[in-house]
Design brief:
The structure holds two protein chains of two kinds. Chain A is of the alpha/beta class. Chain A has two domains: 42 residues, no CATH class; 243 residues, 2-enoyl-CoA Hydratase, Chain A, domain 1, CATH 3.90.226. Helices cover 47% and strands 16% of the residues of chain A. In chain A, helix 10 packs across helix 11. The longest helix of chain A has 20 residues. Chain B is α/β, with parallel strands linked by helices. Chain B folds into two domains: 34 residues, no CATH class; 237 residues, 2-enoyl-CoA Hydratase, Chain A, domain 1 (Alpha-Beta Complex). In chain B, 38% of the residues lie in helices and 19% in strands. Chain B is built from eleven helices and 13 strands. In chain B, the strands form three sheets. In chain B, strands 3, 7, 8, 9, 10, 11, 12 and 13 form an eight-stranded mixed beta sheet that branches. Chain B has a two-stranded antiparallel sheet with strand order 1-2. The longest helix of chain B is centred in the middle third of the chain and has 21 residues. Chain B starts with a helix and ends with a helix. Classes of the chains: A alpha/beta, B alpha/beta. The interface between A and B is large, with 59 and 61 residues. The complex binds zinc ion. Zinc ion binds next to loops of chain B.
């Protein structure tokens, strides 16, 4: 596959809180002397730190959805060698929203599954914005099985707003298809690494995101439903999305604290959309650490199962308290 | 024979159902006025049109198991509000929602689990309670499902789960999502142990519950007319800008699509489960092999 074209972050696609940064970047590109350049670079660095240190959860949601954010293939074409894409669910169709295949990472053969959202308008439409249907989840399941059969580590790349909400998706069993993937992944007898790249949306994300090590990019989000929808359901007002985003705990740091993910993967200054190659290289190091763990025999299905079994929080009254509460 | 037994069986809580205990009832299904007592004696199924009323989880269990055999388990688990989902500026409180759920349902959470016998076959049984936060799945629902599955595996007896849910419990955020993985794994454990797992999908079974334990049965049974689907109908209509037919995502629709084994009226569930469990439960299989 050809190296993706380098896209420049234009002011037109900048987020509101990025505007000042873009303005400084433009001045930097027009700087005449080295002296001027280093002064503006220092200013940019300082301003960037200021902006990024005080990001609100909603601003992180916006970053995660940034139109120029690198997509799955922007990462995999850089960190994998000799990727062979495999197609079809062997029942009905090939779902372009879900990309599956086999490749090499620093000499180690790996199986790969991920959602590709697309970059151009044509590709976005063709890939349904990374929203897979049951065919996509069943195609992924095929590759899970293959990874287990051949004893190959499985790498998954999550980038989807949701599983596709559609008539055919329902007809073909979207719910049971996702359920079957969860069923398979918790006990898959091969190591599983998952990376949440930008937007991890609900069951559609989880359907390929159960593993031994869940890495999440610093400005990615992972949600039970979009904050807009949460606000709409709870308060009948999607505009309360910022409040919902804070309350839902959607950022990588929140999720690390909740024990749902295992690591937060840093992004280049200004976010992954500013430097696709830099973002891929940082994620590559994380994959490298995971595969080193494979060689040490660190990942075991029993440990994975125990990890998921412990997830959640509840109060367990002793029998006496429970009896009193009922009385 | 089993028909007679069924009719003699009177629920001990049927009288306090959420339908007002007036003498007459206007049926939601056929809009006819029916004698309340007739409907009640028919397990809250309309005697004219077969419309299945939403009923309490405990009532559902009573209709299915042998009278007096149900022993509740894990009732001491309750929601912890792990995200501290309390929003003062909107006067919104998850703690208050939990309290409301407890008040409305008389239960600690949206699921009841326990041991019972069903036509003399020992089984683990559970049911979800819609009046508790729309039977959404949060940490407690997930954990109790897993413990019920553990009980079934340990005793090598079946699990029958009456599923009903509006989806995941939003106020527990990502932790609610993780319950899908956790419960799917609990089903896997039952499958590995050769313990039968029969979900019964009642109105409504949707979202994260359908995409986890409700979607993974050895045999999947549904009540007539139940809403069963992953993405909500209105969400799909909004996304695609279409109007979907009335029968979209009904039990009958999912049966046609191949995702439901049997659509069974509530009044026939007990003998049906009895037959299936006699075929599948480990003890019964052993007894059959020895006979
Ligand atoms: Zn009727």
């Amino acid at each position: 596959m050809a190296e993706p074209k380098k896209r420049r972050a234009g002011a037109d696609q900048a987020l509101p809180f990025e505007k000042t940064l873009v303005e400084i970047e433009e001045r930097l590109s027009k700087a005449q002397t080295d002296e001027e350049r280093s002064a503006i670079a220092a200013e940019l660095d300082k301003e960037r730190r200021k902006v990024f240190e005080s990001l609100t959860p909603w601003q992180r949601v916006q970053l995660a959805r940034h139109p120029q954010r690198p997509r799955m293939l922007d990462f995999t074409t850089r960190i994998l060698e000799d990727f062979v894409e495999l197609h079809g669910d062997r029942a009905l169709a090939d779902d372009p929203a879900m990309v599956t295949g086999i490749g090499r990472f620093q000499g180690q053969t790996v199986c790969v599954v991920g959602q590709q959202k697309g970059t151009t308008t044509d590709e976005k439409l063709q890939r349904n914005f990374g929203m897979a249907g049951p065919e996509g989840y069943r195609k992924a399941l095929r590759i899970f099985d293959m990874a287990e059969r051949f004893g190959l580590p499985l790498l998954t790349f999550v980038d989807t707003p949701a599983a596709h909400p559609g008539v055919e998706a329902e007809q073909h069993g979207q719910g049971p298809a996702i359920a079957r993937n969860l069923w398979a992944l918790t006990r898959l007898r091969t190591p599983v690494f998952c990376a949440i790249l930008s937007e991890g949306g609900s069951g559609g994300a989880l359907g390929i995101a159960v593993g031994d090590w869940i890495a999440m990019l610093e400005h990615a989000i992972y949600v039970i439903c979009p904050p807009e929808r949460c606000a709409e359901i709870l308060w009948r007002d999607a505009e309360r999305k910022e409040i919902a985003a804070s309350a839902m705990k959607v950022t990588a740091y929140d999720l690390k604290a909740l024990g749902v993910i295992d690591s937060v993967v840093g992004e280049p200054p200004g976010g992954a959309h500013k430097d696709h190659a830099g973002a891929a290289s940082i994620l590559g190091e994380e994959v490298e650490r995971f595969l080193a763990g494979c060689r040490e025999g660190r990942w075991k299905p029993e440990l994975r199962r125990e990890k998921y079994r412990k997830m959640g929080a509840w109060i367990e009254d002793d029998a006496e308290t429970a009896r009193q509460a009922q009385a | 024979m089993s028909f007679l037994k069924r009719n003699r069986f009177v629920s001990r809580i049927g009288r306090s159902s959420n339908i007002r205990a007036g003498l007459w009832l206007k049926c939601h299904g056929c809009k006819q006025v029916v004698y309340h007592k007739d409907v009640q004696e028919n397990q809250m199924v309309c005697t004219l049109c077969g419309y299945h009323y939403k009923i309490k989880a405990s009532q559902r269990i009573d209709y299915i198991v042998d009278p007096g055999s149900f022993q509740e388990t894990h009732a001491n688990l309750r929601a912890a509000n792990p995200l501290g989902f309390e929003i003062a500026e909107l006067d919104y409180s998850y703690n208050a929602k939990i309290e409301e759920g407890r008040r409305k349902s008389g239960l600690n959470e949206a699921i009841i689990t326990g041991f019972a016998t069903l036509e003399n076959i020992r089984t683990v049984i559970g049911a979800m309670e819609f009046r508790f936060c729309g039977a959404s799945m949060g940490s407690v629902v997930g954990e109790k499902f897993c413990r019920a599955a553990d009980d079934a595996v340990r005793e090598r007896i079946p699990l029958v789960m009456i599923c009903s849910s509006g989806g995941a419990r939003m106020q527990e955020g990502i932790l609610a999502l993780m319950q899908m993985a956790k419960t799917a794994d609990a089903v896997h454990a039952m499958n590995d142990a050769g313990v039968p797992y029969i979900p019964i999908l009642v109105d409504p079974t949707s979202g994260g519950v359908y995409a986890s334990f409700a979607g993974l049965g050895d045999i999947t049974i549904a009540e007539p007319g139940a809403y069963i689907g992953f993405a909500g109908k209105r969400l799909i209509e909004g996304a695609l800008k279409v109007k979907l037919p009335d029968d979209f995502q009904t039990a009958e629709y999912q049966y046609q699509n191949g995702f439901v084994d049997i659509i069974s009226p509530r009044t026939e569930l007990r003998p049906l489960l009895g037959r299936l469990l006699r075929y599948l439960s480990p003890q019964e299989r052993l007894a059959a092999a020895e006979a």
